[in-house]
Amino acid sequence: MEKSCSxxxxxxxxxxxxxxxxxxxxxxxxxxxxxxxxxKAIMLLHxxxxxxxLFITIxxxxxxxxxxxxxxxxxxxxxxVDKTDSNRRxxxxxxxxxxxxxxxxxxxxxxxxxxxxxxxxxxxEPEILEPLVPSILQCLDHRHPFVRRNAVLAVMxxxxxxxxxxxxxxxxxxxxxxxxxxxxxSARRNAFLMLFNCAQDRAVNYLLSHVDAVPGWGExxxxxxxxxxRKVCRSNPREKGRYIxxxxxxxxxxxxxxxxxxxxxxxxLSSAPTxxxxxxxxxxxxxxxxxxxxxxxxxxxxxxxxxxSHRDIMVDLIMDVLRALSSPNLDIRRxxxxxxxxxxxxxxxxxxxxxxxxxxxxTQSGELEKNGEYRQMLVQAIHSCAIKFPEVAxxxxxxxxxFLGDSNVASAIDVVVFVREIIETNPKLRxxxxxxxxxxxxxxxxxxxxxxxxxxxxxxxxxxxxxxxGISTIKQCxxxxxxxxxxxxxxxxxxxxxxxxxxxxxxxxxRRPAVLADGTYATQSAASETVVSAPTLVQxxxxxxxxxxxxxxxxxxxxxxxxxxxxxxxxxRLEEVQxxxxxxxxxxxxxxxxxxxxxxxxxxxxxxxxxDSDSYDRIVLCIRLLCNTGxxxxxxxxxxxxxxxxxxxxxxxxxxxxxxxxxxxxxHAQPDDLIxxxxxxxxxxxxxxxxxxxxxxxxxxxTGEFTKDADDANKLNRILQLTGFSDPVYAExxxxxxxxxxxxxxxxxxxxxxxxxxxxxxxxxxxxxxLVERPQNYTLAPESSKQIRANIKVSSTETGVIFGNIVYETxxxxxxxxxxxxxxxxxxxxxxxPATCADVAFRNMxxxxxxxxxxxxxxxxxxxxxxxxxxxxxxxxxCLTAPSALDGECGFLAANLYAKSVFGxxxxxxxxxxxxxxxxxxxxxxxxxxxxxxxxxxxxxxTLKQKGGS
Length: 950
Description:
Elements: H1 19-27, H2 31-46, H3 54-61, H4 68-80, H5 94-105, H6 110-120, H7 126-129, H8 133-138, H9 145-159, H10 164-167, H11 171-181, H12 185-198, H13 200-209, H14 219-235, H15 241-250, H16 256-269, H17 273-289, H18 293-309, H19 311-315, H20 318-322, H21 330-341, H22 349-362, H23 371-388, H24 393-400, H25 409-425, H26 430-440, H27 447-460, H28 464-478, E1 485-487, E2 503-515, E3 521-533, H29 548-553, H30 557-577, H31 581-602, H32 613-627, H33 631-663, H34 688-703, H35 712-717, E4 719-721, E5 729-738, E6 741-750, E7 756-766, E8 769-771, E9 778-780, E10 785-794, E11 800-810, E12 817-820, E13 824-826, E14 832-834, H36 839-848, E15 851-856, H37 864-875, E16 878-879, E17 892-901, E18 906-915, E19 921-929, H38 932-945
Antiparallel strand pairs: 1-2, 2-3, 4-5, 5-6, 6-10, 7-9, 7-11, 8-10, 11-12, 11-13, 14-17, 15-19, 16-17, 17-18, 18-19
């Protein structure tokens, strides 16, 4: 068995020092040589060497040294050296050590006394400590606080030893007298800690007799007081009324650590609204006063817990929580917004939105490098507020539309998605949003933002002026046609010849809006000529970057297809609202000319990326539609698309509502539960806080919050058989996984008629698992059993394996017997839980994550939805795809699944299924994650479970 030690030191034994060399150095008179020799001896002891011949030398030549460094190293040596023989009896040489320790405890130098007392705290041999007890007690009255505080710790260490009460029977009384007269804060803390651990009743009596003085005590002793209160109230909950006043008095302590512990203690002891409000207010004060980011994150976690169980109280403090947005750290801001968004009510929505608007305006300063990410978070928060409370949308939508041309593309995308949703859910804002969008469309510099903005223009430009403005805006952003002209050096216009080696001059014209001094818009034309070699164009010479023309000339023909569809819808709607046929025909011809020019550009030899087939087909479809329009086709283009969008928003709202209901805690009380009606109780001597606490306890008991549903079947599933029934030792383990800890409760049964000696459970791990401590040896009587507990730490989401054996000895057999245990596989499902995220966030993570595991579908299940449900159930993940998107029977199914691990890791799964002619399912399940472990482990789990039935 490994020995316990107070510290670990790396020591290279490649060229070990001989014991004789160390001995000679210790016998010499050189102090520095003695120090080096002692250090080498300590290193060798820590690395398994015994060196018994040095002990007498150290006693003769080192024990009498007056050098402080040597004395400190000597105590370290005495701490780790073996003090007993093989029969666990004290070595005779230790009597000499006792005399030296006694001399040190009576030494006039306070440093020697203090370090010796601290050394005695780590001794566990009563034979050594017994003759030193009078000297230890004498040190309690020493003039120096360093000696007194260590003397108290030494008294506590001796008293807590087995049989220590016999060595110091009056220790609690002595410490209580010491506490009454001591002035040093550290010594008082140690004295109170000793009473807390060894004589709790005395500590409680002392505390209750000095209630008014507690706020004036030092930080150290106040922390011990809070520990005492928690322990007492946990063992006797009815006593908490006596201590609540002490906790409340400490909430305004000057120490931030005491304030934090006070708030946590108050929440753990009481559920009264007054207590919870006081704790939450304290947390908010810490959030503002502390500058350390880690402290802020921890406090936000506590506030998030309060929000879950006491939402009504946290709602009143929402503005205090919002002040944490002043921190420049993005993680703090993200947590703050997450808390605030769940505390929004009709009463505080205006204040919250106003604060968020101010933060958005601050991000325009550009002083911080992560302003773009912060702005994106704020836009998403405002979006969530506007969805929950549509009446606030009018106050924020126009402000956010200024960021459609933001350099941070993600932020601009969030803005345009927000605008798209608001314009559908708030019909009153439609006209103002369309007007503002057409005015700011020129500023958009991202293709993805352009596509969404074009869709909004095509669907919500309904009046004649809006349709004409929409067509005009698109034409101005596209510029003059054609998109390119090729002129030979001779000056004649001709198309570029791929076989020609003669350089050509390409003239590219573009038009872009310019803002005049009076704020109106004007059109600015630009033309550039570049000498190039056909058939390749230099892409950087095309046009001013950012508008539709430059995006098209850069080869983005998906945007070109969207432009074609937008023009088609606008022209079709113009036919309905414009009585003048000539104007309609003019707009129709203009749209056709733009589409043909885009196809001509895509098929030219001057772009490195020619038009793709999907975009080509879409533009051709728009051309055919404008040439020959039927009523059914017109209905599909002008009505069905918007109806689908409306249905998508309704499904999204329904899913969010269902998730809120699912997260709500549903508990049922048992019919025979006892309820104490506090109105019928005697209120004599009870404070208002205690009365509120009684009410809350009654409510929790009535609603079944105290009821713990024990699933016995689930517990049985966690019991794993480690050995066979015919083995002399039978063992089984109950595995409990709790976040970062795995606890193995192993039951070992001796099935023989002999006594098993030195029985040890030896475990080893594979993967990111670590055994915390090795179980000790046991002696097992015939046909008896023993419960052995082993703790294992987990550091990542990965399928780990625990293996090992049981080793024991019998009186008849000299060698040890080994029983090999079955392996314990830690399931990844214990680490991940279903979670939700936005579609945009899912796609972004899918693009960023580098680890992918591709699993082929191989199952006997023949229904696509049944297989999807089976995978969701087997992997403990959440299906992000809307149920409406999974309706119908088409032989194909694609869905996205998402989960988060307890370590904050994201697990993304995409399922693509196709039903074959023979009825079997085929396709792939793709898993992506940021780390390799979760991708591989989840893939193994899916491979094991996908066949169904298990």
